[in-house]
Amino acid sequence: MREDFERLLERLVHASVLERVAISVAALLTAILLGGVLVFVSGAFATCRAGLDLAGATFCYNPMQVYYELFLGALGHPLEGGWELHNYNLATTLRQTTLLIFAGLSVAVAFRAGLFNIGTQGQLVVGGLTTAVTVLFAASYLPGGFVGTVLLVPIGVLAGAVGGGFYGAIPGALKAYAGANEVITTIMLNFIAVGVTSTLLSWRFQDPASDNPQTRAIPEYAEIPNLPLVGFSPRMNFSLLALGFAIALIVGIAWLLARTAFGYELRTTGVQPAAAAYGGVDEKRMTVASMTLSGALGGIAGAFWVLMEHGRWLENVPDIGFDGIAVSILAGNNPLGVGAAAFLFGVLDSGASSINTATDVPPELVGILSGTIILFVAMPEFFRMIGRRYVDVEEPEPARSTGGEVDD
Amino acid sequence: MTGTDAAASDVRTDEELAVHLDGITKRFPGVVANDDVDLRVERGNVHALLGENGAGKTTLMNVLYGLYGPTEGRVIVDGQERSFDRPRDAIDAGVGMIHQHFMLVETMTVAENIALGNEPKKWGGLAVDRARIDREIRDLCDRYGFDVDPSATVAELSVGARQRVEILKTLYRGADVLIFDEPTAVLTPQEVEDLYGVFEALTERGKTIIFITHKLGEATHAADGVTVLRDGRAVASVEPTETTREELAELMVGREVLLEADSDPVKTGDPVLATADVTVEDDRGVKVVSGIDLEVRAGEVVGIAGVDGNGQSELIEAITGLRTPDGGTVRFDGEDVTDWSRRRRIEGGMAHVPEDRHEQGLVMPFDLVENAVLGSQRSARFARNGRIDWADVRDHAEDVIETYDVRPPTADADAESFSGGNQQKFVVGRELERDPELVVATHPTRGVDIGSTEFIHERLLDLRREGKAVLVVSSNLDEVQALSDRLAVIYEGEFVAVTDPDDVTEEELGLLMAGERPDEGTQPARAGGADANANAGGER
């Protein structure tokens, strides 16, 4: 039994890229099948006017319809008449994808350095407020219109990165110089972020014209601009430029990790700190640097949440940072995988609201459905992570049959 | 059956052989680890399985021990053909294995470890019969002349004693055939002698021993029969009395081998490395290195011999910048580098073959290309503006692989997939090809086959000839004696002697390493290195 399990793990660890893709697809299909059964059976316990009568029970929910809404609803029902590419549902999906890419990259970078940054949420909160306040302040000194956009958007993103980076550097320094576990400190700093920003808001930055806890709105020209002709409408709160920037950042981070000395040192520190120290890496500085980079990416997520979605900072920040953890794990902490994982989360998120509008299936059940899918898709990678520890112990002694003779 | 009634010799079958492996072939995806190997081991004999790293020794024994099934061939134990699906089957058939890395629970007692998984029960299976375990272990100890206290905690025991616990564990399970995987790798010279004594005691009682080794001396000294493996094939089966070490070496490597590293005297230059009164304390404030003075000159090899754990690791870490000493100074090329970072020392020309290749020398999940740049990731040779030139690094990795005969010769495989000896070759190659001023090598040939050992020794002596400074730390006395111009023996954080290696015998060195104060020939040397050097005649 145990040996069979180990054999399975070994198989998983040594799976090729193609096999891994096949495994992921199989996992997705299995999850959909299981979720479908779950939805269908749950329908027997609900009350409804019209349903499928079978074996004396009435099954209220149609799994096919649920999945139709989940996946195609997230894209704005492309198979129905009157479909336009620039629809609201697709905008919601892609907006969520964009924000989750930043948050996922934030978590992934820390993971690769061997650090579990649960503080992306707090870094996002702080970065977002820094962005809003900086843009509001800078806007009063800068011209409006196109020039304002060109100046204020980069300033806003940079401000978010600086704010988040600073807030990520704190747990990094605490770990490096005081030995404080980053998991604990980042969790605590998440609460502190909420408290501090809320205090700052009521102290100075509250929008006087509103009862909601929020800052004043930034000028419209300081929001992420929409592309003419191919872009989405401004009222959909999504810009292709933002998605483009997110994808560029994916490539950039992947390049940084794979090609640069810094990335090499970061990865080495993540998998084998002793080898990194031997190779001349200052582990303390690396801890601070990677947490700062991770925090900056979380801050950028906050910046785009402000500059693209709301045009102001709100006290009630959604859990994008926490979802980033799931995105990163699903992606195996690989920057390139973060894009795909974020898109899946975006679809599940936006599809869920589509289900709510179109069917009677309760949101809790939709949550279970999404959870099942995420769980199934993430499990193979998860077992690969575990399996690597297991399998290495029993590596066969690699004999040489291919090696050249010694005497040549 | 329990271990106490395991005398199988009175029911002899027609076959005199305890173990007969007949035409064993074992294939792994892409490699043939064993190719039609025959192995015949007579009952009551000590049989050595001799071969270089990756020759297929461990794989063959894992087949016998039931860890792998053979692709082809038959396993015959005690005249009966067997098919082992798992180690448990092999144990039931009387085949036990003592692994290189002991599988003991340190916090438990000797008795608990020995009985683990085979506890005799009492009260209808509700409780462990501890009295019986103790009695049986004492019986075993008496029979084989072991001095082991069953109630001692394993954590308190020396390495040699732990090995005896492993042997007892195997005997307790009723093994008649005992397989040892590189049993001497972790032992001091004295402990090795003790182990040979254990071999004798076991074979006198009719047990059969097979041990895996790549050391010629062990095979000729301790074995009644030797089977040599090369490239997965059994190339010869000989009796050690009928052959010479040179012949065996040739069989192993497939060509003639120079067994003695040749170190003719070279004129030494200025000191490249000089430590003064270096002191290192451990976490509890205990001095593990107490005031060591050490000098390595250009064109000189200095050896440090000592049993592991006597402060040599900490001393080397202080020299190479992996640890800040608690006192004293380290000078490198005339400059005080005590406060220099590790990176600065690397860039200054300090190469280091670390003690622990698994933790330090190699990044296990990285391939050899990525490992080839470890330590040079910011050097001008491979990096431009913080960007690593991977094509360049790959060329370098392939050079090292070819020059140092790393097998299989693929730069794209992860470091963890190589056998220990090949990993070591790669680390040594990377460090020696750094064009260093000073090489600090800890166990440079640990686990490496003799063909490559010879090459590494030659490369170290080449560097010496080129006027570089070399510091070698090893518990392998042959190695430090052969290479060094001066040899320091470290015991409990101090140099107990600094001597010319040609003036001492291996026995004397072994005693020095064990903390025995020298009586004649070499004089004791206290912390003051100056008089130690003068006495040894190393200072010219």
From TrEMBL, chain A:
Membrane topology: Multi-pass membrane protein
Signal peptide region: none
UniProt keyword terms in alphabetical order: Cell membrane, Membrane, Transmembrane, Transmembrane helix
CDD domains in UniProt: TM_PBP1_transp_TpRbsC_like
Presence of the UniProt keyword Transmembrane helix in the record: yes
Organism: Natronococcus occultus SP4
Protein's name in the database: ABC-type uncharacterized transport system, permease component
One GO molecular-function entry: transmembrane transporter activity
PANTHER family: ABC TRANSPORTER, PERMEASE PROTEIN, GUANOSINE ABC TRANSPORTER PERMEASE PROTEIN NUPP
Any one cellular-component term (Gene Ontology): plasma membrane
InterPro entries, A to Z: ABC_transp_permease
Transmembrane segments: 21-46, 97-118, 124-142, 149-170, 182-203, 238-258, 288-308, 320-345, 365-383
Subcellular location as annotated: Cell membrane
Source organism superkingdom: Archaea
Keyword flag Transmembrane: yes
From TrEMBL, chain B:
GO CC, any one term: plasma membrane
Subcellular location, record wording: Cell membrane
Alphabetic keyword roster: ATP-binding, Cell membrane, Membrane, Nucleotide-binding, Repeat, Translocase, Transport
Keyword Cytoplasm annotated: no
ABC transporter domain segment(s): 19-256, 273-517
Ranges in coiled-coil conformation: none
Topology of this chain in the membrane: Peripheral membrane protein
Gene3D superfamilies registered for this protein in UniProt: P-loop containing nucleotide triphosphate hydrolases
Compositional bias ranges of the Low complexity kind: 525-540
Protein name: ATPase component of uncharacterized ABC-type transporter
